[in-house]
Amino acid sequence: MQDDLHRFKAGIFQALAHPSRIAIIELLRDEGKVPVSGIFERLGLEQANVSQHLAVLRSKQIVIGRKEGNQVFYSLRDRIIGKVLDLLRQYFEAHLKEALDLLKDMKTDDSLA
Amino acid sequence: MQDDLHRFKAGIFQALAHPSRIAIIELLRDEGKVPVSGIFERLGLEQANVSQHLAVLRSKQIVIGRKEGNQVFYSLRDRIIGKVLDLLRQYFEAHLKEALDLLKDMKTDDSLA
DNA sequence: TCTATATATTCGAAGATTCGAATATTGTCA
DNA sequence: TGACAATATTCGAATCTTCGAATATATAGA
């Protein structure tokens, strides 16, 4: 059971573990309710790609989509997820220097790969 | 820059996205400071595997290890990470029913795979 | 120094994730 | 009904993650 809870949490984190999905969540947090077209236009992503990311978020029930006529409007299912992101922003600011170094590392790793 | 922050957050979530790593973090949160041997004994994991997970957590600076003689004692670098896990426990409780269904899905997916 | 203990790293196979391209589905309006 | 618009799904290649096995490194004590 302890392990079940660990799996549950890990599953949520996994769903959050992609920059585009974070961007989607923050957009929904800020705007409340956005159609898919609004998401991919605002974020400059491919339609299919956004649909795939939304499928991941839906599968973990982080996000819900409601049909309205022709479109599907997405929103966060629970404000707590927004709070988690806020905590991480705090964390980022508290360790700004090291966080920036970390980002730099990620980039150079990418460019060397 | 917005995108950098998204990458940073995604990187942290990725580091948290594994049941064993969650277990390690919760152990450190509860006990404060634990040697590697204490971690793998308490969690029933392989030594090498725990070292690998610790390497992931170290690379994102979620955890720090300090040598004391023969051993390395690990602890959380910042209480905020513990708070993130607490929020998720709240989240789990708030959506207990669906969360349990989700867990069931994960299991059946596993067993069918 | 030799040996034992504690931890970390490297390797390779199995599995998971990601993306764009192509295609399917659903709803609207003529 | 047919044509279009919005969204979702499937496929396959590239990339990343995970694990145990084997090996490396570091410290302590005889």
Protein model, in words:
The structure is a homodimer of 113-residue chains. Chain A is an alpha+beta fold and 113 residues long. Chain A folds into two domains: 1-77, Arc Repressor Mutant, subunit A, CATH 1.10.10; 78-113. Chain A has six helices and three strands, in the order H-H-E-H-H-E-E-H-H. Chain A has helices at residues 2-16, 19-31, 36-43, 47-59, 79-94, 96-112; strands at residues 34-35, 63-68, 71-76. In chain A, strands 1-3-2 form a three-stranded antiparallel beta sheet. In chain A, helix 2 (19-31) crosses helix 5 (79-94). Chain A is globular, with a radius of gyration of 16 Å. The termini of chain A are far apart. The model of chain A has no long low-confidence stretch (mean pLDDT 92). At the A-B interface, helix 1, helix 2, helix 5 and helix 6 of A face helix 1, helix 2, helix 5 and helix 6 of B. Chain A binds a DNA duplex (30 and 30 nucleotides) through helix 4.
Number of strands of chain A: 3
Counting DSSP H or I runs of 4 or more residues, the number of helices of chain A is 6
What low-confidence regions of chain A span 5 or more consecutive residues with pLDDT below 50? none
Task: Record the strand order, biggest sheet of chain A.
Answer: 1-3-2
- Summarize the helix and strand pattern of chain A as letters: HHEHHEEHH
N/C terminus separation of chain A: 40 Å
CATH topology type of the largest domain in chain A: Arc Repressor Mutant, subunit A
Give average pLDDT of chain A, whole number.
Answer: 92
> CATH H level of the largest domain in chain A: which superfamily?
Winged helix-like DNA-binding domain superfamily/Winged helix DNA-binding domain
Number of structurally distinct domains of chain A: 2
